[in-house]
Amino acid sequence: MGRVPARVLAGMVGVAVLAGQAAARADEEWGRADLSVTVSASPSVAQPGQLITYRVQVRNDGPGDAVLPVLRVNVPPEVDVLGVDVATCRPGRTVSEVICPSETDVIVGANGGVTIHGIVRSGARGPLRLTAHISSAVEDGDPLDNDVTLGTRVDPGADLGVRLTSGPKRGRRLSMAATVRNRGPRAVRDAQVSFTTGGARMVAAEGARCGGGAGQVVCALDRVASGRKVRFTLAFRAPRRPLETTAVVRSSRLGDRRPADNQARMRIAVR
Hints:
Elements: H1 6-30, E1 33-42, E2 45-46, E3 51-63, E4 70-74, E5 79-84, E6 90-91, E7 97-101, E8 111-120, E9 128-135, E10 147-154, E11 160-166, E12 173-182, E13 192-196, E14 201-206, E15 209-213, E16 216-220, E17 229-237, E18 243-250, E19 263-268
């Protein structure tokens, strides 16, 4: 084999060095993954005593795959976790922490997430502060978007209460009055009172829109302003035994900070 000119040899060495550097850069890039995490809450304004749903979304913008990422979510302490929609998630060090390890790598451009269902405690004041952090076994080129914090305002809600009193009796026809009070601060436009009637059948109602059959009656009320009371009456035809009823008042839109008086019970003897 003849001699290789010095200029050619230098060029070959330069190409080899550049190729090695390119391979090293490629290995370095594929050993990185740019993970990001975002979170949203529904409803956007929480209600005391009502459900809230968090959606935590994770994305990998590459250039490499994220190796076995782990998502950690700290739910606000004012929210009791009811469940999540990912089987690999588990409780963390506290009841408010949810840890979701992925069993597979997350490829470039892929995304996924977890939905967390909870209920806001009746005494919650807000804002409800949720934090989430995503990490993996490889380096993240942009770690600033690996953490997210979401604050959710809590509506003041209303304070509904119900009270029952017995009315006139005419043989097996019994009557009662229900008084619903709203201590505010919000007015309630969708208040409903549900009654269990123990087999007694409603035959008349006055002051509310009521319906149902033997066993249960539901009454819808007009607007109950803050600081106001609404009274309505019901008449039942009871079987040959005392009428035992439980009444529960609620709003499907507004939370209640003091739910202890949302329920009332009464027993009416049959003559």
